[in-house]
Amino acid sequence: MKRIQIQFLQRLILISVIIFGVHILVLDLLGFSLFENKIILAYVVNIGVALLVFNVLYFFREKFKKQLGFLFLFGSVLKFALFFILFNGAYRADGEVSGFEFSAFFIPYAITLIVEVYSLAKWLNKLE
Questions:
Q1: pTM of the entire structure?
Q2: pLDDT in tens, 99-125
Q3: Which of 33, 88, 95, 106 has a CA positioned 20 to 30 A from the CA of residue 122?
Q4: CA-based torsion, 1, 41, 73, 99: positive or negative
Q5: Pair 87, 105: CB distance under 8 Å
Q6: Residue 62 and residue 51: Cα distance in Å, rounded?
Q7: From residue 59, how far is each of 4, 8, 39, 52 by CA, in Å?
Q8: Contact between residue 50 and residue 117 where contact means Cβ atoms under 8 Å apart
Q9: First and final CA of the chain: distance in angstroms?
Q10: Which residues of 1-31 are buried (b: 16+ CB within 10 A; e: fewer)?
Q11: Domain that holds residue 72
């Protein structure tokens, strides 16, 4: 594993763990159940896909240099597909998606996306 991949892994895990802790703390302070709505699975899936996308982009950085943006977009499509496969059915079981269900998926999605974009932008600027 290269230095850039290790740094991304460390950044992604650290920020995700901090945000997960804050997320759980807020749920607790508001008196809601901490581990409902597949919250742990949402964090694990989003972290896993972010790692996969970053490493695929890193692996293909030379061969598909001009197509890296499209590969990144494919990773976003993959995250949405996994949302529909793993979460949407359970979230819509009662006929609607509650704010807690939405936040259980969207917060880790947004955080991992921000870390991905920041890390990729930093890394891609060095490639030019």
A1: 0.89
A2: 888 898 899 999 999 999 999 888 878
A3: 106
A4: negative
A5: yes
A6: 19
A7: 12, 14, 30, 10
A8: no
A9: 22
A10: eeeebeebbeebeebbeebbeebeeebeeee
A11: 3-127
Residue type present at position 86: L
Total domains present in the chain: 1
Sign, CA torsion 114/54/61/84? negative
User: What are 49-104's pLDDT values in tens digits?
Assistant: 999 999 999 998 888 888 888 889 988 888 888 887 888 777 878 888 788 888 98
Instruction: For residue 55, count CB atoms less than 10 angstroms from its CB and return exposed for 0-12, middle for 13-18, buried for 19 or more.
Output: middle
Tokens of 53: 């996308």
Angle at 72 between CA 42 and CA 67, to 5 degrees: 165
Q: Tokens 């819509």 correspond to what residue?
A: 92
